[in-house]
C-alpha cells in the first residue's frame, strides 16, 4: 500500500432526491463512490396533471439511505453532507407542519411536484404581464416553476392551505432546513424557479403584478429572505435530531443545496478530459453541455456573459458554477416517456418475461433485441418510416409551449415484440432530436458547444447514449461514476466542510470521466433527414390545431 493510501480518508455524504427515488452515496475526496443505497418514494396523481408527494415520506427515505451508506464506517471520517432534489414545492404551516396541496385536505400530500401542470391558467396570466423578470426564464415562464403554483394555491386552497402557510420551500431547501434548522434558501432554487435575481434580489413589482403582493408585505419571509450560494456551510451543521434520524454525527457540515439537475452538472462538467482526443480539452468549460437525463432531461450550458436564449431557461447567474451564467434547456419527460411507451405496449408482458428469464433490465433486453433484428444495417435505420414527436407533456425547450402533444407517424397493424422494440427506438431517437433542437437554439443565441456530458438514469442506456452522439454529431462523455448526480451532492458537502477552497476546485478533483462515445459520422445523412421530419411534425401539429380552431 502506498503512503497516500494509508492516510485517514475523508468522506462526504451526498443525498439525491429524484422524482422516483432517493439515493445516497458515501464519496471520498477523489470522487469515488464507496457505498450507494436507494429507496423508492411515494407519488400521487389524484387527478390528471396533478402530481403530489409527501415531505415526511421523502425525509424518511433520506434517513433510510443515509444510514445504509455509512454502515461500518468510522463516523469521524465523514466531513460533510450535501443534498440535491427535484424542484418541487413544499408547503408547511407556521409551526413547520405539512399543509395539504389538494382538494381532499390530505396534509400528508404537501408537495406539488415539479411536473405538475395544474397551474395552466395562472402561468398564462403571468406570461401575459410580459414582466421583465420573464427575460431571465427564456422569455416565457414554465408552468413547472413556483410562481404559478403559488398563485394556484392562493386561488384554489385559500382557507385550507394558503392562509395557514408559514413556509414555501423548494424541495432542496426543505432538506437543508430539516438537517440544520436553517431556513436560508439556496441561490440555485430561488434564481432558477422563483424569479430571484443574484444581482438585484426580489422584484416587488412582479409579485404585485401577478397578485401575490402578500410576499412583498411580509418581506418575503415565507419564500426566503436569506439567500446563500450552493455549497456554503449552514448554521451549526447537523442538528441533534437530524443526526439521530440520519445516523450521522451531530454538527457535521451541511451545505446549502442544489436542484438535482444542477448537482448533476457539478458532478460532470468540470472533469479533466486529457487524453481522450476531445475538442473540449483545448476549449473553455463553456464548450461543454451537461445533460442530466432521468425522468426529465436538463441541458445545462454555462457562459461568462449572460446569453438570452428564447425558450431556454436563464440566463441565471451563479446558479450552478459560481461566477458563471447558466442556461437550462429541458425536456419535461424523457425517462418517463420511454417507460410510458414501453409499458403501454401490448407486448410489454412478453418483454418483461423474456428480460426476467435472462436476468436483464427490460432496456438491456430491448437493445439486444434491436441488434438481432437490424440485420446488416445500423440499428438506427430501423425507424426509416417511424417518427415520434416526444412532447407528451408539453415542450419545455426551445419552443416553451405546454400545449404541445406527442405524435407518432408510421404505425402498423402489429403488436409484437419487434414492433415494441422499434417504437422504443423511435422514442429514444425523438428525445435525442429534442436535444439537437435545444443545442441549435443555444448555439444560435451565442453558445459554442462541442461536447456532451451525460448523467442520470438514462445514461445507463447504451442506445440512448449512442443516439445522442449520432444525432447531435457530438462526442458524449460518461462519468466514471454512473451516479454522478450524487458526486455533485457530495461536492457540496465537501465544500461546506472547508476541505476545498472553492466549488471549482472540488469539481476538478472529484468529477472523473469514464467512457467516451463518439458519433458514427457515416450515419449523419440519415439522421439529418430524420431531423427534417422531426421539425415537420411540430409544424404540422400547429397546423392541425389552427384548422380545428377555425370557425
Ligand atoms: N438500467 C437502466 N437502463 C436503462 N434505462 C434506465 C435504467 N435505469 C433507469 N433507467 C431510465 O432512467 C429513468 C429514471 O432515471 P433516474 O435518474 O433514476 O430518475 P429520477 O432522478 O427522475 O428519479 C427511468 O425512467 C428509466 O427510463
Ligand atoms: O426542472 C428540473 C431541474 O431544473 C428537473 O427536471 C426536475 O428537477 C426533475 O428532475 P428529474 O428528472 O431528475 O427527476
UniProtKB/TrEMBL annotation:
Keywords of this entry: Kinase, Transferase
Region forming the signal peptide: none
Gene3D superfamilies assigned: 1.20.58.2240, 3.30.420.40
Tree of life domain: Eukaryota
Assigned EC number: 2.7.1.47
Positions of the Carbohydrate kinase FGGY C-terminal domain: 289-496
InterPro entries (alphabetical): ATPase_NBD, Carb_kinase_FGGY, FGGY_C, FGGY_N, FGGY_RbtK-like
GO biological process, alphabetically ordered: pentose metabolic process
SUPFAM superfamilies noted in UniProt: Actin-like ATPase domain
Molecular function GO labels: D-ribulokinase activity
Residue ranges constituting the Carbohydrate kinase FGGY N-terminal domain according to the UniProt record: 11-267
Protein name: FGGY carbohydrate kinase domain-containing protein
Lineage, top ranks: Eukaryota, Metazoa, Chordata, Craniata, Vertebrata
Gene: FGGY
Amino acid at each position: 500500500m502506498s503512503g497516500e493510501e494509508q492516510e485517514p480518508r475523508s468522506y462526504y455524504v451526498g443525498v439525491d432526491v429524484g422524482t422516483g427515488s432517493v439515493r445516497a452515496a458515501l464519496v471520498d475526496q477523489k470522487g469515488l463512490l464507496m457505498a450507494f443505497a436507494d429507496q423508492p418514494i411515494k407519488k400521487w396523481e389524484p387527478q390528471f396533471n396533478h402530481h403530489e408527494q409527501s415531505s415526511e415520506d421523502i425525509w424518511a427515505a433520506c434517513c433510510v439511505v443515509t444510514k445504509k451508506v455509512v454502515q461500518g464506517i468510522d463516523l469521524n471520517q465523514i466531513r460533510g453532507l450535501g443534498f440535491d432534489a427535484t424542484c418541487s414545492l413544499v408547503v408547511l404551516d407556521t409551526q413547520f407542519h405539512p399543509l395539504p396541496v389538494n382538494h381532499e385536505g390530505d396534509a400528508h400530500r404537501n408537495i406539488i411536484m415539479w411536473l405538475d401542470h395544474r397551474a395552466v391558467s395562472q402561468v398564462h396570466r403571468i406570461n401575459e404581464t410580459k414582466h421583465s423578470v420573464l427575460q431571465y426564464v427564456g422569455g416565457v415562464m414554465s408552468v413547472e416553476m413556483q410562481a404559478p403554483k403559488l398563485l394556484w394555491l392562493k386561488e384554489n386552497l385559500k382557507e385550507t392551505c394558503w392562509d395557514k402557510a408559514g413556509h414555501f420551500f423548494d424541495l432542496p431547501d426543505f432538506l437543508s432546513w430539516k438537517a440544520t434548522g436553517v431556513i436560508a434558501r439556496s441561490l440555485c432554487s430561488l434564481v432558477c424557479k422563483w424569479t430571484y435575481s443574484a444581482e438585484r434580489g426580489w422584484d416587488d413589482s412582479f409579485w404585485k403584478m401577478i397578485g401575490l403582493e402578500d410576499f412583498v408585505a411580509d418581506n418575503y419571509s415565507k419564500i426566503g429572505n436569506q439567500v446563500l450560494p450552493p455549497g456554503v456551510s449552514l448554521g451549526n451543521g447537523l442538528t441533534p435530531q437530524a443526526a439521530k434520524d440520519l445516523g450521522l454525527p451531530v454538527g457535521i457540515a451541511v451545505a446549502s443545496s442544489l436542484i438535482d439537475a444542477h448537482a448533476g452538472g457539478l458532478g460532470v462538467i468540470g472533469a479533466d478530459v486529457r487524453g481522450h482526443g476531445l475538442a473540449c480539452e483545448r476549449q473553455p468549460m463553456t464548450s461543454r453541455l451537461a445533460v442530466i437525463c432521468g425522468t426529465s432531461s436538463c441541458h445545462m450550458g454555462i457562459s461568462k456573459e449572460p446569453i438570452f436564449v428564447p425558450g431556454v431557461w436563464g440566463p441565471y447567474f451563479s446558479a450552478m458554477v459560481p461566477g458563471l451564467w447558466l442556461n437550462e434547456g429541458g425536456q419535461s419527460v424523457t425517462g418517463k416517456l420511454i417507460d410510458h411507451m414501453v409499458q403501454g405496449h401490448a407486448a410489454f408482458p412478453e418483454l418483461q418475461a423474456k428480460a426476467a428469464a435472462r436476468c436483464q433490465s427490460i432496456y438491456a433486453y430491448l437493445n439486444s433485441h434491436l441488434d438481432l433484428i437490424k440485420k446488416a444495417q445500423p440499428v438506427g435505420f430501423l425507424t426509416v418510416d417511424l417518427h415520434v414527436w416526444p412532447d407528451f407533456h408539453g415542450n419545455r425547450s426551445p419552443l416553451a409551449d405546454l400545449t404541445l402533444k406527442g405524435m407518432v407517424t408510421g404505425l402498423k397493424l402489429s403488436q409484437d415484440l419487434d414492433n415494441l422494440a422499434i417504437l422504443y427506438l423511435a422514442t429514444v431517437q425523438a428525445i435525442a432530436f429534442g436535444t439537437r433542437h435545444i443545442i441549435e437554439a443555444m448555439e444560435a443565441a451565442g453558445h459554442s458547444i462541442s461536447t456532451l456530458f451525460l448523467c442520470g438514469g438514462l445514461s445507463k442506456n447504451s442506445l440512448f447514449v449512442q443516439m445522442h452522439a449520432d444525432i447531435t454529431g457530438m462526442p458524449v462523455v460518461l462519468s466514471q461514476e454512473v451516479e454522478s448526480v450524487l458526486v455533485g451532492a457530495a461536492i457540496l458537502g465537501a465544500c461546506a466542510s472547508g476541505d476545498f477552497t472553492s466549488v471549482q476546485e472540488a469539481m476538478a478533483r472529484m468529477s472523473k470521466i469514464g467512457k467516451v462515445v463518439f458519433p458514427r459520422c457515416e450515419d449523419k445523412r440519415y439522421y439529418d433527414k430524420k431531423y427534417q421530419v422531426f421539425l415537420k411534425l411540430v409544424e404540422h401539429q400547429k397546423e392541425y390545431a389552427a384548422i380545428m380552431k377555425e370557425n
